Amino acid sequence: MRAGRALAISGNDPQAARAWVAAQYGSNDPALALIGRAAMIGTGSIEPPDEYGAALAAATIRRSVLGRIEAVSAFARVNFNEPLMRASDTAVGFWVEENMETPMLEGVDPFAITRLPVTKLGGLAVFSTEFVRQAGPRADSVIQRCMENSLIRRLDVSLFDGQAGDPSRPPSLIDSTIAGTGNAGEDIGAALSTLPEEFGEQIVLVVSPWSVPALIASGVADSSTLNARTGGVLLGFPCITSTAVPVSSIAWLAPALIQLADAGVIVGASEASIVRVDTGDGVELHSCWQENLTAMRAVLYVGWRKLEPAAAGMVTDVVPATIRPRAPKAKRPTAAR
């Protein structure tokens, strides 16, 4: 974040950016190396070395729904574009001694090679140029926190939004929903019945915090084991809360049956961008240069894929009576160019 601020302050002049960092933080600050790399690449973006990019990605994922789920049950971690061989349902293994005839199954393709393609999510934060020019750990912390929050919102919504969207970003894990019958236990049980038995102990449920009061009032949950802030236990399964899940719905995930990959973060900054803001009633355009603003963008390379169709899903209309949050009225930036 500090290197991105320096480039924004200097108008993407690497020499001026390095001089600013050295003057404010000393000649051994790690941001100097990142600025030098940006100058060599010529992209105007900060592409952190593995340890820095991984640290930024880890901080974002740890606070997201992905990280909170993984703290309970681990995902199947892989690398992007790594060839992975997976056995199909019809695979049969034989232990064959030497010089013995090898049993064969005709018409069976027991193994398949899969690769997880590279996908990404972007987060955008806009600050006054005066604030960005401040030196010190407090400004660094505020900017990094805002960038993480921006990425986390995109990450959480992308998991549960139910739409394929841009092919360059990871598709939603929820490709279909099940209408509730009024009995949450039976609905979840029926939805999970197609999963292999050995994955039952790894299921994690996710609900909106706004659904928790109704779940407790209807007897589906107990106030001693479930709360709106941290989750708890619901229907016998570990449960976390997230506003990315629609109110009155219950999402489930079997993390061991979901491949997950991340490959760090790229950070960029500009004082000449045009930011498009969705006000809820329309769209406004803001010129950073004219309004003395600095736009900072972070791109998180992250992707996931279900190994079984029932590895993730959602039951809707679980409880009829629920508290519904007021629709936000605040302006929010949606894009920059």
Automatic annotation (TrEMBL):
It comes from the Bacteria. SUPFAM superfamilies: Major capsid protein gp5. This is HK97 family phage major capsid protein. It comes from Paraburkholderia translucens.
